[in-house]
Design a protein that fits this description.
- It contains 10 helices and 16 strands.
- By secondary structure, it is α+β, with helices and mostly antiparallel strands.
- The protein has 2 domains: 171 residues, 3-Layer(aba) Sandwich (Aminopeptidase), CATH 3.40.630.30; 178 residues, Gcn5-related N-acetyltransferase (GNAT) (Aminopeptidase).
- It has an 8-stranded mixed β-sheet, sandwiched between helices.
- Helix 1 crosses helix 3 and helix 6 crosses helix 8.
- The relative contact order is 0.08.
Length: 381
């Protein structure tokens, strides 16, 4: 059986594109204070919540040096602290460890975490004979709301393995659920073709709020809205209270990772104005479809445009998808206007493509929006 290497006295230097990973030094203290003095850092990095001055930064650095596999991630050109990364919870018998990382505010969205994680993973899995640690498995955990960390994990080959409830203190007296990821020495380095099931969350959409359906709270409102003939023609919904409760329960359960669904309510007053969902989530092709309806009393007020645009942002930012699509009957011009105003370009017509609630096959318009497309001005209503 292959053995894991003994831990080094200090973290060995590693390099990545444009980055140098080195052991911590006393003169890093001021930059550690600056790293800790950031809302995102304090939200997701419990250890840095204890740092608020040079003395506490020095104590934090001393603990990193005790681990012996914890690195300051530095910009190769300037030497500035770009982030941090470390292996901890080493188990020599199981040849395993856990990895954690963070990025300084000025270096976010520049691939720093991705490059640093790839470098540390290569060191962790490299055989002892090649000056690596010879590990069999590296685990990675992050708070469910930290979607950037989730994307980095998947991009570096760390498979999503499940959810654990209320594990990490959130800094305000509560606990965060966490996503569990893992990578084996035999796994490819990524990216993985997968979409991690998101935690059901509300989403702000200007004058509207996207809320997660709840059978007890929402079933009666959904049933009343879906009695409207126009909704029943294009989006047949529940016809009984039992159906409405089941409809809300299905849409409130995001655990399969194949959809994210909301009801749309007025941000002021809370009345139900519609529904929007991301469905047909396709990890292999980094895409999804958007579906929606608007209750009769709320039509003509921009609710569809605002909610479609907000759902698309969630698809791109939280799920990391590259493309979102909308299909609607050509005979439904209101849906066409809403899709276009929400930034979904018209891409073609599909003849006799779908049988809608009226029982007839209709021609469909297809619209698409890419993550790289500009945000439409009309969606800010």
């Amino acid at each position: 059986m292959t053995a894991a290497a003994a831990l080094p006295d200090v973290a060995p230097p590693l390099t990545a594109d444009g980055l140098v990973l080195r052991s911590w030094r006393v003169d890093d203290a001021d930059e550690v204070v600056a790293l800790a003095d950031d809302a995102e850092t304090r939200r997701w990095s419990p250890s840095l919540r204890l740092v608020d001055d040079r003395a506490s930064a020095l104590a934090w650095i001393a603990r990193r040096l005790e681990r012996r596999t914890d690195w300051a991630v530095c910009d190769a050109a300037s030497g500035r602290l770009a982030g941090r990364i470390g292996l901890h919870h080493h188990d020599a018998d199981d040849r395993s460890a856990e990895v954690g990382y963070g990025v300084s505010p000025a270096y976010r969205r520049r691939g720093v975490a991705h490059r640093a994680l790839q470098a540390v993973s290569a060191y962790a899995f490299s055989p002892v004979e090649e000056a690596g640690l010879g590990l069999h498995r590296v685990a990675l955990e992050h708070a469910v709301g930290n979607v950037g960390s989730c994307r980095t994990a998947s991009a570096c080959g760390y498979a999503f393995e499940g959810l654990a409830r209320e594990v990490i203190r959130d800094g305000s007296g509560g606990f965060d659920d966490i996503h569990l990821h893992g990578r084996l020495a035999t796994d490819p380095p990524g990216p993985l073709v997968q979409v991690v099931p998101p935690e059901p969350v509300e989403v702000a959409a200007g004058a509207y709020q996207l809320t997660v359906p709840d059978p007890d709270r929402d079933a009666a409102d959904v049933l009343a809205a879906c009695a409207d003939p126009e909704i029943r023609r294009w989006n047949p919904g529940p016809a009984t209270m039992a159906d409405a409760r089941a409809w809300c329960a299905r849409r409130g359960d995001w655990s399969r990772g194949d959809h994210a669904s909301w009801l749309v309510r007025a941000a002021t007053g809370g009345e139900l104005v519609g529904s929007v969902s991301l469905h047909e989530v396709d990890a292999a092709n980094s895409s999804c479809e958007v579906g929606y309806w608007v209750a009769a009393p709320a039509r003509g007020r921009g609710a569809a445009t605002a909610s479609i645009a907000a759902a698309a942002r969630f698809a791109f930012d939280a799920l990391g998808l590259a493309r979102a699509e909308i299909f609607h009957a050509v005979d439904n011009p209101g849906s066409c206007r809403a899709a276009t105003k929400a930034g979904f370009a018209w891409e073609g017509t599909h003849r006799r493509a779908y049988r809608y609630g009226d029982g007839e096959l209709h021609d469909d318009h297809s619209h698409g929006r890419l993550a790289t497309d500009p945000e439409p001005a009309a969606a800010a209503r």
